[in-house]
Amino acid sequence: MKSKILVTGGLGFIGSHTVVALQEQGYEVVIIDNLSNSSLDVLAGITKITQITPEFENMDLRDKEAVANFFEKYPDINGVIHFAASKAVGESVENPLLYYENNLSSLIYILQHLSQKEQASFIFSSSCTVYGQADTLPIKEDAPIKKAMSPYGNTKQIGEEIIEDTCKVHPAFKAISLRYFNPIGAHPSAEIGELPIGTPQNLVPFITQTAIGIREQLSVFGNDYPTKDGTCIRDYIHVMDLAKAHVVALKRLLDNSSEKNYDVFNLGTGKGNTVLEVIQSFQKSTGEELSYKVADRREGDVIAAYADTNKANSVLNWKAAYNLDEALKSAWKWEKKVMKIEKKH
């Protein structure tokens, strides 16, 4: 019997795709989600894809007592993939205390229980924001961690430090932080995908919502950066590739195949694309015209960030399989599906 795995934030964008990947590998999954940035419809999507309904607990991980009760109810959980966190950079600047409370207290309460087990494995959803504007590209895992450009980025840096410190004093506790670059796309079935509530914070949902007519025009923030076309460069990775990486990393911990009990990995394609290249790729792969305008630079945006993926490729034996066109095509298929559902309602 494969392990029982807790996925926090398991109805969110990356979480839901990871739940599917886990269930397809035979893991039993329990999801915790407070539905603050997700929808219960996602559970139905997961069930439709895998023919299995994961156990679901609607709870807020900031509630210390609720977390204690959860681990009492599920004593056989020995692996956790922790996605649950607030993740909008702009909002974190406006409301830093909300971010510190939500992103750090939930992490601490889970670790307090997990670290007491005889053996436990923990995967942390981290981010390339920990690097800030890196001195050299592509970015390696040992690149210096710069002062965070936002409270959101800072919660990821502090989160990694908390986990590393916990691993030092609990040798049986094993953890991996996965620093991902820019997740995009959707499951090929279009049963689950990215579902931003309110105005999207990320480029691709903004592109698909503009193409379908929800938004009038896409804003490209700045075209005077020192890049080939003046727009920012990011490493866009298909969410399906990302989900697989979580399963591979978890298996590494559960199998005890790592000498270290704490490690970090970059997850990206290893290739950077400018904002204009993403727009062109979307138009080419979907045949849709996109209305966009150049706007002022956004505060806190780094010029360029893309991953050196050699460590994940060699140590985890994982490599991104999908290209940008395929990822954008799947995001468009998902957007059209969402639009159909909304028209029905």
UniProtKB/TrEMBL annotation:
Select a single GO molecular function from the record's annotations and give it. UDP-glucose 4-epimerase activity
Name the cofactor(s). Answer: NAD(+)
**Domain NAD(P)-binding as annotated: residue spans:** 6-329
Query: Does this entry carry the keyword NAD?
Result: yes
Q: Which UniProt keywords apply?
A: Carbohydrate metabolism, Isomerase, NAD
What the entry lists under CDD domains is as follows:
UDP_G4E_1_SDR_e
Q: In which pathway does it act?
A: Carbohydrate metabolism; galactose metabolism
Report which reactions are catalysed by this protein: UDP-alpha-D-glucose = UDP-alpha-D-galactose
Q: Name the source's superkingdom.
A: Bacteria
Q: Which Pfam families match?
A: GDP_Man_Dehyd
| UniProt GO cellular component terms | cytosol
Cleaved signal peptide residues: none
- What's an example GO BP annotation here? galactose metabolic process
Q: How does it assemble?
A: Homodimer.
Task: Name the protein family.
Answer: Belongs to the NAD(P)-dependent epimerase/dehydratase family.
What's the protein called, per UniProt?
UDP-glucose 4-epimerase
Organism equals Gillisia limnaea (strain DSM 15749 / LMG 21470 / R-8282)
